[in-house]
Amino acid sequence: MLKLFLLLIVLLFIIIFATENLEIVKVSFLIGEPIEIPLFFVMVSSLIAGFILAIFANMYLHIRRYREKTSRKNSENEIHF
User: Are 23 and 37 in contact (CB under 8 A)?
Assistant: First the structure.
């Protein structure tokens, strides 16, 4: 029940945030004409892009640690004469 209540509060804040940021802004890319979209979408897409970059960075660090761990384990298992 508490989770549902917290979810409803978060959704309420998102709705309020969205309605307060409906101004139209121009977004220019390197190629082509600028597009006009609501500020809310620009901010949310930036947030999502940041989450995706953070997930990829975290995955890279986990893979790197795993490779270091397995290479150390393999070098310890080798017989040295």
Answer: no
